[in-house]
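An example makes the point: we print one protein in full, the chain in one-letter code, the fold tokenised, without further comment:
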Amino acid sequence: MGRTWWLVLGWLAASSSWAVEVHDVRLWRAPDHTRIVLDLSGPADHKLIVLDNPSRVVLDVADTRLRAGLDKLALDNTPVRRIRSGVREGDDLRLVLEMSAVVDPRSFALKANDQAGDRLVLDLYDKAGKPATVRKSVNQSAKRDIIIAIDAGHGGEDPGALGPKRLREKDVVLAIARELNRLLEADQGFKPTMIRSGDYYVSLKGRRDLARKRQADLFVSIHADAFKRKEAHGASVYALSTSGATSTAARYLAQRENAADLVGGVSLSDKDGVLAGVLADLSMTSTLDTSLKLGDTVLRKVDNVAKLHKSNVEQAGFAVLKSPDIPSILVETGFISNPAESRKLATSDYQKKMARAIHAGIRSWFLAHPPSGTLIAWRKQQGEQQYVIARGDTLSGIAQRFNVPLSDLKSYNGIDGSKIMVGQKLRIPTT
């Protein structure tokens, strides 16, 4: 009995020496920083140390054991050359990151919530140079482009909603966003900018800040809806509400999307402390009115390729839409939680159709209501537009893009058949 009792005590001592376990380590590369996330079995205290000669970042995690491997982390295109681990003072975990470049490291812990467990986040911000900022370009006698900020929702450790066969919202919406970006790049007078260009997370406030920094004329956030009931279906367009949501579903969706920061990993210091002032500004400007009208134009185009969840633009308190000076809409491209719509969302064909619909709505609005000082506004005053034919263009596609009848486009340019050439200029009749 005595020997057994001592064995039990020894086992308890060994098992309790590590209060927390790291069961996974994940890494993402963003344009301006590298993020490393430790998934923990519970909360743990930690300390960050920066060492020179050679350059190292050290992370000490109290009473913690590493159960995950480090050798499969993709360190290419990151400032981290190597990561090694060790045990410190008996039961503390030490991670040593050997650096190939100088960084500004920041760390914070995230408590477990409904979407994710306890995590420890290490962000390594680049110090050498900053990514180029998109500015309102000047061309044709100081006539600038219209800048469209395209926001693919979620990303990185936040997959967004999950559909059948583990279809991830973040992957679907990034594909749609990239296609929308491609379409707008082909349009003279428009300049798209991607808020998230890869698989990494940007905070909700950070998305708004990037759009403002890039002086966007429109912020469009792309998502794929999800609901508790699988039969829920249809695409939607949303604008901000400064009071209550226009429906129970809109309120549920806004709450779910606003919780993305809990999953994506945002420190408490990143919270928006001027929300009341932002909403006050919104109530005194035409930004929200423009968002609703522009959103309705996009919704009418989306109606051509997908069933609508609601026939009007809905409103709710989406944090990502709370820009006081930029018209902002959120497009739900379908219910990823609906098996039939999930199958569509997974296909490149549907993704391109949805991108073309959003593109057509955006173009239609700005061709009718161009911001002053833009090339589009100048062309509207002149009574016509020009388009340079690119590889892959068709007359019918160009007519659809500019929202003009194909017969009008052909007759306006003296074209009898359907043959066109790359580099050829077409005059676009006013609608």
Remarks:
- The first helix runs from residue 2 to 16.
- Residues 4-16 have pLDDT under 50 and may be disordered.
- Residues 383-429 form a domain with the Membrane-bound Lytic Murein Transglycosylase D; Chain A fold (CATH 3.10.350.10).
- The longest strand covers residues 20-29.
